[in-house]
Each structure stands twice: as C-alpha cells, then as structure tokens.
Design goal:
This is Amine oxidase domain-containing protein. Belongs to the flavin monoamine oxidase family. Residues 3-94, 162-421 form the Amine oxidase domain. Strands 6-18-19-20-17-21 form a six-stranded mixed sheet. Strands 10-1-24-14-23 form a five-stranded parallel sheet, with helices on one face. The protein has a single domain, classed as FAD/NAD(P)-binding domain (3-Layer(bba) Sandwich), CATH 3.50.50.60. By secondary structure, it is α/β, with parallel strands linked by helices. 35% of the residues lie in helices and 20% in strands. It contains 13 helices and 24 strands.
Length: 480
Amino acid sequence: MIGISAAKVLAENGVEDVVILEASDRIGGRIRKEDFGGFAVELGAGWIVGVGGKESNPVWELADKSGLRTCFSDYSNARYNIYDRSGKIFPSGLAADSYKKAVDSAIQELRNQEASCGADDVCKMIPEPPSTPKTPIELAIDFILHDFEMAEVEPISTYIDYGEREFLVADERGYEFLLYKMAETFLSTSEGKILDSRLKLNQVVRELQHSRNGVTVTTEDGHVYEANYVILSVSIGVLQSDLISYKPPLPRWKMDAIEKCDVMVYTKIFLKFPYKFWPCGPGKEFFIYAHERRGYYTFWQHMENAYPGSNILVVTLTNGESKRVESQSDKETMKEAMEVLRDMFGPDIPNATDILVPRWWSNRFQRGSYSNYPIISNHQVVHNMKAPVGRIFFTGEHTSEKFSGYVHGAYLAGIDTSKALLEEMRKDSDTKSENQNFMLEPLLALTGSLTLTQADAVSSIHKCDIPRRFFFSGIPEAIL
C-alpha cells in the first residue's frame, strides 16, 4: 500500500523516472489473499477500520469507488459468547462485569504510567495492578481488549477521526484489488496484472550505500541500481532485522527509534469443515474460548456472513502463541484447534478437512504483522522513525503517529513521505540553481563583449532539471 501510494503521488507531480523494487513475486505485502476451500481469504489485513465518523476514511473511499464487497463486523456480542472448557457459555452478567473490570483496570494502568513517566520517556517501576487477570474468563477478555482489538486503551485516533465501525473485506478479488486499482492510474496494466517496467518483482534489497550525492541499491541477485533518492518502505520487523545493510551505518538516533517500536505478530488460522456445527445468526459471528493459558486459541469467527456456505472458521493467535504455532507442523496445529473446538461443541463434531496457517513472523520480508508503539510513547521516537537519513526516506505504517498499525496509516504515510521528498527535491533544485548563478557571475564579466544574456548563458552551460530518479525498496505494506 505504501509503495504504490507513494509512487502514485510522485507520478502525479511529474516525477517519471521511478522504479519500484518489490522483494516478492507480487504486490501487496501484508495485504494478501489466498484461495482456501474455494473462497478468497485474507491472510493479512482483513478489515477497513474507522467508518461512519465525521471524516471519511481514505481506504473506505477507495473501497467504495472500486466496488469492493465488505461485511459489517460487530465484536460487541463476542463477550456474551464465551465458552468455558466444558462447553458452557458464561452468564451474560458475569461476562459484562468481567469486561467492565478489565476496561477500568486498563484505564487505571494507563493513568499510572502517565503519572510515572517523565518528559524524557523514562518510567519508574509500576506495581502490578490489583486487578491483574487470573481466571480463564478474565484472561480471555484481557486478550480481546489488548491483543485482538487494539494495543491502546486511550482514545484511538482512527475512531475519533473516521468512526468506530469496521468492515470485513469479503471480495473474491481480495483487499489487494484496491492496490491494483491505484496502480493502474499511473502504471501500465492488463487484465488485472501490472506490466509496467517500473515495477520490478523478486528484487530483494540487501544493501543501501548512501552519500550526499545519491544512493546505490544492491539486490540479492546482484542487480545494482543508482538513484538520487530512495524511499524505504519495508516493515518495522525488517528494519529491526539484518536483511538490509547500510553503508555508512544508520546513525544511533535512528537505530534507537527503530528498536523502541514493538512488532505485533497476528495470525489468522483458517479451518475448513464438511458442514457447520457452530451457532450462526445475529450476534453469533464471533465467539471466545476461555482457557488457563492466555491467548490459547481464544478468539474465533465463522465466515458465514462473509461467504455463506463456506463452512470456514478462523481463530486468531498473537505474539508468543503465533511464533509457537509457526514453528510446529500444521498437523499439530490442527490437532490443538480441534481439541479446543471439541471442548466448546462436544466430541462428535467433524474433523477439519483443511487448514491454512500464515507465517508472518518467519517471513523474512515481513518479520511480523504491524507496529505496536508503547502506550506511553515519546513523540520524538516517531519523529526519528520517519526522519530521512541523507537521501534515504523512511516510510511505513510505523511512521504514522496517528494511524500506525492500520491500512489507512500505511496509505497516508506513503503520501506524506512523497510530499516530503518532493519538497526536498525543490530545495535541492533551488540550491543548484543558486550555485550555478554564483559561478556564472565571473564568467559573464569576462564575456561582456559577447551578446549573451544571463539566461542564455545558463542555458548554454547546463540546464538544471529537478532530479527525477527514485527507487522504492522493499514490500509495499498493509496493517491489521
């Protein structure tokens, strides 16, 4: 999303010499669909979050313009569909009380952190909150609040600006269709495929050698590209890995900012069944499994609203559980998931006929799902994260202070970075023009007998155009 939106802005401003270097064999990055059980499922970004507010979400506008099929998602009823290990649903009153207790505790913890952290972002030791979740239902609700829904408990900019409604993408063309619709406005396409030579697939960037004169980009297969500027749109996980080396190395202030941002791993596991055995109907799309181990196959969703007759369930794992499952076989994962489902719905339910387990953490081009800044974060960290280093401009959902972690954050970050680069180009062009004029004055004094105007002299010696060579390194990104 970022690479495409950034390149589109440059193209619209007359910058023609642009090359997009894409590490994989497809565009989309963390927006990725896959055929499963005869349906297109979204392995990465799946929802358009923030609809119905005072401002219009730009990604929702793109979806509306493209005719993308979506379904409204309402998580509020999930807390009333919490199963214990014996298959009983917790009483609604107990669930509501537990949810309120968890929210109040989270808000109090935030206030404690705000009170204990100074302007230098150094926090004192905070004692464990008195209401730390301990029972299975408390652990399950804590997981929903902090892992599935959001990392923050303070008001979320997305909801304030764009609204609190969320829509699941349920289109056979996939969420990635939005990227192709954007791309075809400035790249050559045919039948849903990009055929433009400015997009180069399977180009894994391994080294950026930068100086005040430009950047040399070296890929894994030995290709070397030279550019005036580079926009680096890799994920925060890749920035924290050793995939790309820099010569000279990035300065300490940049590395400190990169290291301070956590990476969230978010795994949606898809299971296909011969028939549905779970409750359907209003308020039943989402259900929860309460276990003594936090985050153990906790949050479930059936896909009947998105794809009627699909007989597909999705369970969401995060962070430690995600990494654990990625390291084991799909057969082991299916066994664990089936044991959980039989706890909830009894021993006679059918076995799953197929399973799909994304591995975002193991993917060296992603190394996670999206950025997760601390609840209390110094604004300088985000500023340093997106600040350029010489002629390398950094962008990504992790550079969006208001919308990090979201697809619209990625989209807007690409636009903002390109605008900053265009401004830098203009400054660079003005500086070169001033230097040329300064050098011409002695020359004009010596050629007074010639009938050359200063403008003619400038034109005859060298015409300084705005630099027009750029490369986008990495995978165009998307957020959950």
